[in-house]
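Hey, I'm writing a tutorial for new members on how sequence and structure tokens pair up, and I'd like a real worked example in the thread rather than a made-up one. If someone can provide the structure for the chain below, I'll link this post from the tutorial.
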Amino acid sequence: MKKISVLILTVLFCIALSYGIKAKADDYGFERGYSEIGYKEVNIALQESKDHFNRNIVLPTQLPPVTFTHNFGRFNNLEGDANDGFEITYINKDLTQNHYQIRIKPVKYKLEFREEQIDQIIKLKDKSTAIYSTKNPLNLLAFEKNGWQYILLIDKRISDKVTKEGLVEIANSIK
């Protein structure tokens, strides 16, 4: 009887171990896709951006109230300074609608929004203004702080969980 129990436990352990290995392999493939397009660990990409711009970049201390399984950072150093910037992508590999992105670039090269792209102009706690738009594939909140333009983007499919007010709270968490 003892040998059968040991055998059963060994088989169950091997099955559990194989599922764990498969999950790690799935994560590796998912992460590799992002690394192939320039994403890396957030802290590494953030440091590259700080070094390139020779200034500090402050990130929001709040996140949207949805679950993410992964986050990646990318420093974009494209042709000319106008297209350079830093971005963070938060994603849930099992719930693809849980997708949130922060894009940051110098105000000098900020993205301009046409009037027809703007749903609302919002006052932030520091009295600066933010642009809220639902006219793009992702809902966005764009604002300026400390010489940077921040654009917070959220998948429309979770706009009931991550509302305009939630994005404003995230913006206000940047000090």
